[in-house]
Write a structure and sequence with these properties.
Homodimer. With 292 residues, the chain is an alpha/beta fold. It is built from ten helices and ten strands. β8 and β9 form a beta hairpin. The protein starts with 7 loop residues before the first helix and ends in a 7-residue tail after the last helix. Bound molecules: nicotinamide-adenine-dinucleotide (NAD). Nicotinamide-adenine-dinucleotide binds next to α10.
Length: 292
């Protein structure tokens, strides 16, 4: 079987170009430029890289971007106040607080505090509820990026068996909801599942979001499956740092219909979907430019 490696970078660039056109058209119609605020607490190097990439892409799409950096020792009250102020700012359509937060700060509190209509990460319980009841809402960016890829790769997903490995609030659970909405038969397997392997081997679509380097080998993959590898794991190989996914790409690629690489697969699509959510939030809010 020839290997179809899904180029998430190219797909994401294409999406961002399309959205840049849309942003231009909206501002020409008198709407305010969509605004994205990103809050970064502390010095986590991976978080700093993610934030830089998000802002770079948002600026490419023509968004108005605000980055607020807080010291790792900042208090819960100080962080709360930043979010409350962003909730009230007219120029900001989307708010993202980069996770993880330092251990003394409550992620749950912050997720609940962000105004649901500006919650471009889609983590607020109101948006989670809307997603699971099939209402239009802001959907977490990574599963949204996965769905975008599947629609382009497969088209109609009706009746397909999708297996999601991992049940996090950020990836696994919203992915399962989206796949159900797309009429798949969905199985979710996790660390406590019994005989997860036999379920995985039945999957037409296998989405892997676990955080264990190269966990999935060819024995877990049905020939002809579409495999989406969400994992991003930094490992040491021959004295060098390297990023790998949760799927053993070299072992699996030749039996798949299509597979995403790491890096260059789901990661760029996640960022493109953050822009998509910010644009959606801006459209929903519909704020016009001030008349001068
Ligand atoms: P998480 O730690 O919150 O959840 C991991 C899930 O995997 C849990 O539900 C757990 O039950 C399950 N699990 C653990 N070991 C397992 C095993 N042996 N078999 C089956 N299931 C098992 O992680 P997360 O936030 O969902 O992230 C998962 C991975 O995806 C990480 O590598 C993370 O860095 C990556 N990630 C990537 C992006 C992206 O933009 N590409 C976005 C979010 C997360």
């Amino acid at each position: 079987m020839s290997v179809n490696v899904i180029d998430g970078r190219q797909l994401a660039e294409h999406l961002v170009e399309e959205m840049a056109e849309e942003v231009k058209a909206r501002t020409a119609q008198g709407y305010q430029t969509p605004g994205l605020a990103v809050v970064l607490v502390g010095e986590n190097p991976a978080s700093a890289i993610y934030v830089r990439n998000k802002i770079r892409t948002a600026e490419k799409a023509g968004l108005h971007c605000v980055v607020i950096k807080l010291d790792a020792s900042c208090s819960q009250q100080a962080l709360d106040e930043v979010v409350i102020e962003l909730n009230e700012r007219d120029d900001i359509d989307g708010i993202l607080v980069q996770l993880p937060l330092p251990a003394h700060l409550s992620e749950e509190r912050i997720i609940n505090l962000i105004s649901p209509e500006k919650d471009v990460d889609g983590f607020h319980p109101m948006n989670v509820g809307r997603l699971s009841t099939g209402q239009a809402t802001l959907v977490p960016c990574t599963p949204l990026g996965c769905l975008e890829i599947l629609k382009r790769e497969i088209g109609d997903l009706s009746g397909m068996h999708a297996v999601v490995i991992g049940r996090s609030n950020i990836v696994g659970k919203p992915m399962a909801s989206l796949l159900l909405q797309a009429n798949c038969t969905v199985s979710v397997v996790h660390s406590k599942s019994v005989d997860a392997a036999s379920l995985c081997r039945q999957a037409d679509i296998l989405v892997v979001a676990v955080g264990v380097p190269e966990l999935v080998d060819r024995h877990l993959v049905k020939p002809g499956a579409v495999v989406l590898d969400v994992g991003i794991n930094a490992i040491e190989q021959d004295g060098k740092r390297k990023l790998v996914g949760d799927v053993n790409f070299a072992d699996v690629a030749d039996i798949c219909q299509a597979i995403t690489p790491v890096p260059g697969g789901i990661g760029p699509m996640t960022i493109a979907c953050l822009i998509k959510n910010t644009l959606a939030a801006a459209k929903q809010r519909g704020v016009k430019q001030p008349v001068v």
